[in-house]
Fold this sequence. Notes:
The protein contains 17 helices and 13 strands. It is α+β, with helices and mostly antiparallel strands and 433 residues long. The chain folds into 3 domains: 3-155, no CATH class; 166-359, Cupin (Jelly Rolls, Sandwich); 396-426. The chain has a 5-stranded antiparallel sheet. A 4-stranded antiparallel sheet has the order 5-12-7-10, with no helix packed on it. A two-stranded antiparallel ribbon has the order 1-2. The N and C termini lie far apart (56 Å).
Amino acid sequence: MPSAFHSLRPSLIKRKHRHKSTRRGGKRPKKTSESTNLAAGGEDASFDLKSSASASTASGRGGGGSLVQPLGNLLPAAAGRANLRDAGLGGLRQLPDDLLVDVLGLLPARDLAALSAASKALYVISSHDPLWRAIVLDELGGDFAFAGSWRATYIAAKWTREYLLEVSAGKEFAVGPVSMPLDRYFLYSDNAEEERPLYLFDAKFADKVPEMGSDYEVPVYFQEDLFKVLGEERPDYRWVIIGPAGSGSSFHVDPNSTSAWNAVIKGAKKWVMFPPEVPPPGVHPSSDGAEVTSPVSIMEWFMNFYGACRTWEKRPIECVCRAGEIVFVPNGWWHLVINLEESIAITQNYVSRRNLLNVLDFLKRPNASELVSGTKDRVNLHDKFRNAIDTAYPGTISQLEVEAQQKAAARKKKVAFWDSAVDANTGGFKFSF
């Protein structure tokens, strides 16, 4: 599978073992397939999802009458009748759907997940749950806990409660204002019925439990992390996040002007995001950005403000991120997250070349001692970081500054021309019809 189709999924979670039949060279059982047609008949071949093919075999590929149930961006665009199937399948569009499902059934899990990032059409077919049922039964045998779908089951197969309790025995994690072992937190979260459940949000999980830190890989899209040049002096940057339904994070901007990715291993999270220049309704940041006044709880915001923002010209970006999916959060964006069910996730903040100048500007603000977080040496972080970048990547900052000046000049030139074109009072130029 081409590297461009690298998986945006926490496999991430590495599989260390395979089912006996796979390790010893065994092959998956040959499949027989029923009729499938992801593209409805007629001249319009856009998605009109019908009963999907499932091959019934001893390994359990599918079950009769299983449906493709699109969630999130599995759904095609509601407007128009664009042929999303053919456009998204490219040269594979000639294959009937039942044959295409069988072909994808030959792929290993990592390649199947990677393929889902190529287009909407391939996302739909690659997320077809009977494909993942075969993989789960083939690789895991009976050693799995069903997580609502076969795809989610495969992704969460390693990070079960039992595994996490085993590797973290004797360790405590940050839970709100206190620390507690994981078994006590699970006991609490199973019985919590309050509006604001305590949230496990720990930045030192990989130091406390090295197995958890080595169980995942950073997706290729986010591997450039310039804060690495600081070594152990870098600010906190990665967290394990565990919480019951209803827990989450109220509106905030990620620390130190970093960007972030958040990968759901188990459960589902609803995200609401606003661009930097649009503070969410009910959220009032101070002029220097050091303080934010917002509703007491997430549910209070949804009850009192959510409806209002849906009529704004600049409406929020919303999504539900499920097991095996990742959300990218650009620097400076406001975001709220609420768990729709018990969820486990990994998140990391990072600095790329695209964001380096923003971070440096943020770190040298006059009130850096109040704004910078995740490190004890807040005041000197800018100088340390800049010097480390100059040593590791000579000339990078200067090059980025020149490029930024060129882009700013180009934007100014474009705006200046438009102003002269539409401002009748200038007398220099105006449209005449």
